Amino acid sequence: MTEFPEGFNETRKSAVSKFNAAAIVAIPLVAILFQVYVPRFVTYLSYLELPLLVTVYFSLMRRSPVAGVFFGAAIGLAQDSLSSHPLGMFGIVKTLVGYFAASVSQRFDVENPMVRLVLGFFFFFFHQFFYWVLARALLGQALDFEPQQTIVLAVLNSVVAVPLYHLLDKLKITG
């Protein structure tokens, strides 16, 4: 029998959350439509990156890097197709976010609100930084990366992520 270190929950590693197929399609679609259309009417909500938060959530809950890659790629490419950004940029960045979020979920208890807050902050910052790197390297665009502004926006997104994730937890299929 394998002995686990103190504080390690053996069932945590295998606890994969399941969702209704309609929820897996509808939630990211609503998040993308929110990202595209709501800031046109309410400009101060443009800081919210709901497709990213949904990508992180589903990747954390599935606990599978392969599933995280597919969630990230699908959400990122759908977001690219509805935005004015070059096709594939959000797809690449959200694919990496999905992979890393799912990998992190295998090591940590992602049901804890403080862990979710920290992960929301980290993945927003990672998303923005990696988008900046890709825009400079692949497209040759001279985008500005402002770490202070990115940190503030990461805090705001992570604060929104905690109640959003709690709400999405209620859509899990139990059994």
Question: What's the SSE blueprint?
Answer:
Layout: E1 18-19, H1 21-41, H2 50-62, H3 65-82, H4 89-105, H5 113-138, H6 147-169, E2 172-173
Antiparallel strand pairs: 1-2
Helix pairs in contact: 1-2, 1-3, 2-3, 2-4, 2-6, 3-4, 4-5, 5-6
The largest sheet is: 2 strands, antiparallel
Quantity of strands, as a count: 2
Which radius of gyration do the C-alpha atoms yield?
16 Å
**Structure annotation, total helices:** 6
Strand order of the largest sheet: 1-2
Q: Mean pLDDT, rounded to whole units?
A: 90
Query: How far apart lie the N and C ends?
Result: 27 Å
Number of domains: 1
User: Based on CA inertia axes, which overall geometry fits?
Assistant: globular
* Uncertain residue segments: 9-13
Task: Give an overview of the whole structure.
The chain is mainly alpha-helical and 175 residues long. It has one domain (18-170). 67% of the residues lie in helices and 2% in strands. The protein contains 6 helices and 2 strands; from the N terminus they run E-H-H-H-H-H-H-E. It has helices at 21-41, 50-62, 65-82, 89-105, 113-138, 147-169; strands at 18-19, 172-173. Strands 1-2 form a two-stranded antiparallel ribbon. The longest helix has 26 residues, at 113-138. It is globular, with a radius of gyration of 16 Å.
